Amino acid sequence: PPPHVRGFTPGPCSTMGDPVEVLNDALAAIPVSPGYEVSAEVAGSAYFVSSGDRAPSVLRIEASDRKARTHVVVDSTETLQKLAGAGQVGAFQLIASRKLRIEGDMSQLQALKTELEPHKQSIERAASLAADAVLGRLSRQRSTTWVPDESVTCCMEVTCGRRFQAPFVRRHHCRTCGGVFCVRCAPLPMGAPRDSR
């Protein structure tokens, strides 16, 4: 820890579950036919989903700009979570509201949906956990010890170090790691864009 913090052990900020690995862990237990390839954009991030070339096979997700014949665009992680639990009518509602766009070969998505239907609850749970990881909610399940105000004289952000001089510089606790930061370095509320200040 920085020298201006006494007795602080970093919390789970850096060990938050990777959403892609959360999904891959859940999908590893679900057998599917080989040959699926779907590219996806979720909230501006690009992914490639494939099931390998031979049976038995499982779906695997990787961050990639590769584009497949079937391409899905989802506007947010919240929409992805809704999509995981939505039936056909729900998917059409997301398309109508322009939160979901599907381009290319729809037959692959239909076949994949049919194969995954018996595992719907597992997939919904995985999508929920992945969305939680993206939004930082997993940290609420951990017990985080906050660094006491009086033990910190400077912002704990490594690149900042701004001194706390009352009443002009307020201290802000991170709910994930328990660290103390100035207003410029404090973590934003969940879902708030970085440039919203």
Description:
This protein is an alpha+beta fold. The protein is built from five helices and nine strands. The strands form three sheets. It has a five-stranded mixed β-sheet with strand order 5-3-2-6-7. Strands 1-4 form a two-stranded antiparallel sheet. Strand 2 and strand 3 form a beta hairpin. The chain is elongated. The relative contact order is 0.17. Residues 1-16, 137-143 and 190-197 have low confidence and may be disordered.
Key phrases:
single chain, 197 residues, alpha+beta, five-stranded mixed β-sheet, two-stranded antiparallel ribbon, 5 helices, elongated, disordered N terminus, disordered C terminus
SSE topology sketch:
Blueprint: H1 19-27, E1 31-32, E2 37-42, E3 45-50, E4 57-58, E5 60-63, E6 70-74, H2 77-85, H3 88-96, E7 100-104, H4 106-116, H5 120-135, E8 172-173, E9 180-181
Parallel strand pairs: 2-6
Antiparallel strand pairs: 1-4, 2-3, 3-5, 6-7, 8-9
Helix pairs in contact: 1-5, 2-5
Would you count the extended β strands for me?
A: 9
Average pLDDT: 75
Largest sheet: 5 strands, mixed
Uncertain parts: 1-16, 137-143, 190-197
Shape: elongated
Q: How large is the count of helical segments?
A: 5
Separation of the first and last Cα atoms:
28 Å
Indicate the structural class: alpha+beta
What integer value in Å does the Rg equal? Answer: 21 Å
User: Within the largest sheet, what's the order of strands?
Assistant: 5-3-2-6-7
Percentage of residues in strands: 15-25%
Summarize the amount of helix as a percent range.
Answer: 25-40%
Order of secondary-structure elements? HEEEEEEHHEHHEE
